[in-house]
């Protein structure tokens, strides 16, 4: 199902996941969706592989961690998630030949912590990787050091109208 993109979240200059000047990084983009979820999207390169032709599990974990951790800022733009705990379940390999699409959401929100879940979903609807995590709520100026105006930037790239993500009930279990 196509999910309407409402906004793009900021990116950083050198973050391993979203850094637009980090040549070794993922250069991921994050989109707030009409479903209240957050989508993380990046195009994997050969240097992101684990086994030949497959995305490295640690990189898949990083994109899910970032997607879930950023989801809180949809409802509270001044709040960011600092990972306390992340559990990842690998169900199917993620190929390197197409964009990686992660989706994350908040499932529990309290004063100091929030919990979220997310998935990497393949083009055919297969849930390749699932994650759940607990995050400490913090403002960005307590997390980061330095001049945030030079490090934290609006994503100036063209905004897509929508992103294809199967509905939860339409997602296929892996066939591994």
Show the helix and strand layout.
Elements lengths: L1 E7 L2 E2 L16 E5 L4 E5 L14 H15 L8 E11 L9 E10 L3 E9 L5 E12 L1 H4 L4 H4 E2 L8 E3 L12
Antiparallel strand pairs: 1-3, 1-10, 2-9, 3-4, 4-6, 5-8, 6-7, 7-8
Describe it for me?
It is a single chain. With about 180 residues, this protein is mostly beta strands. The chain has a single domain (about 1-170), classed as Hotdog Thioesterase (Thiol Ester Dehydrase, Chain A, Roll), CATH 3.10.129.10. The protein has helices spanning about 55-70, 140-145, 150, and strands spanning about 1-10, 10, 30-35, 40, 80-90, 100-110, 115-120, 125-140, 150-155, 160-165. The protein has an eight-stranded antiparallel β-sheet with strand order 5-8-7-6-4-3-1-10. A two-stranded antiparallel sheet has the order 2-9. A hairpin with a 3-residue loop joins strand 6 and strand 7 (about 115-120). The protein starts with a strand and ends in a 12-residue tail after the last strand. The mean pLDDT is about 90.
- CATH architecture name: Roll
Strand content: 35-45%
Q: State the separation between the terminal residues, measured CA to CA.
A: 24 Å
Which structural class best describes the helix and strand composition? Answer: mainly beta
What is the CATH class name?
Answer: Alpha Beta
What is the total number of structural domains?
1
The CATH H-level homologous superfamily: Hotdog Thioesterase
Radius of gyration: 15 Å
Which spans of ≥5 residues are poorly predicted at pLDDT below 50?
Answer: none
Instruction: Please tally the β strands and state the result.
Output: 10
Number of helices: 3
Q: Provide the residue-averaged pLDDT.
A: 91
Query: What percent of residues adopt helix (DSSP H or I)?
Result: 10-25%
Strand order across the largest sheet: 5-8-7-6-4-3-1-10
What is the H-and-E element order?
Answer: EEEEHEEEEHHEE
Largest sheet data: 8 strands, antiparallel
The CATH topology is Thiol Ester Dehydrase, Chain A
Indicate the overall shape. globular
